[in-house]
Amino acid sequence: MDMTNTTIGRRPEVTDDSIVRAGQKLIDEGRRVTGFALRKEVGNTGDPKRLLKVWLAHLSSQSVTPDDALLDIPVELEKALHSVVDETTEKLKSLALELNSAAVNTAEQRVRAAIELANKREQEAEAEVHDAALTIDDLEKQLTTLSLEYAQCQQALQLSKEETKAQTKLAGEFNLEISTLAVQLSCQQKENEKLALSADSAQQKIDNLVAVVSELKEEKSELRSENKRLAIELSKLSNERDKQLGELIAKLDTTTNDAA
User: Does the structure show a pLDDT above 60 at 89?
Assistant: First the structure.
């Protein structure tokens, strides 16, 4: 599968090839591949949801879908069927039972494979939520630190203002000191503005990550629903197998009676 992005418009900040290489590196290191782990591996850039989507598409291109095509009956099995035609009815019944069991087992394996894939995607979604929660915690700590620094600077600014006001009452020999304090006050105000901008940026990142976590939780719920649907399908297949087996045994019994 060609992973090159051919969409017309702005070029993605992280290429598909880079994402695939990052995912393979995580696999080689025995680490779980998640959107945030991929983002960290490619240099802390790109949308985690897109990164994970590209990686899953790559995995799908490397695997064979169970329902791609119907399997032909092996030549050996066909010869065996021809050879047992002339044998006893009991042997034919036994062979028919074996064939039916093999067919049902194949169908069950396909359903189990689909359930395993859904479970794997659910685990990956849970890992995404976990990584997002860790990132949010880290940003919240940074925001707390910035808030404390901002409060300290505000307090220092207030003290500087009060000191400046007191110094302005002094006569000529304190004029130089007053000028120095005014410069320091200006620098302190600029630093406070920078800290305020940093706090706003951190809060925006937290809001974005909370939105991502919400989407991942919705995806997890959808995957659980898919698991339930597949389990119901497996139960239907088992019932259908029992029904077909009963019909086949009845036909074979009828054939035996006719032959007798």
Answer: no
Query: One-letter amino acid identity for 98?
Result: E
The number of residues making up the chain comes to 260
With 0-12 CB in 10 A as exposed, 13-18 as middle and 19+ as buried, what is 60?
exposed
> What pLDDT band is residue 25 in, cutting at 50, 70 and 90?
very high
Task: Enter the tokens of residue 16.
Answer: 């598909």
Q: Where would I find the beta strands (DSSP E) of 206-249?
A: none
Band (pLDDT 50/70/90 cuts) for residue 22 is: very high
Residue type, 96: A
Matching CATH number, 75-259, of 1.20.120.450, 1.10.10.10, 3.30.70.120, 1.10.287.1700 = 1.10.287.1700
Rg (CA), the chain: 35
Q: CA–CA separation, 242 vs 104, rounded Å?
A: 10
How much of the chain exceeds pLDDT 90, in percent?
Answer: 18
What's the confidence (pLDDT) of residue 209?
83
Percent of the chain as helix, strand, coil, to the nearest 5 = 80, 0, 20
Q: Give the residue extent of every domain in the chain.
A: 1-63, 75-259
Residue 155 to residue 140: CA distance in whole angstroms: 22
| pLDDT at 94 exceeding the cut of 80 | no
Measured CA to CA, the distance from residue 181 to residue 21 in angstroms comes to 56
In angstroms, the CA 38 to CA 187 distance is 40
Tell me if 143 sits within 8 A of 203, measured CB to CB: yes
Confidence of residue 191 (pLDDT cuts 50, 70, 90): confident
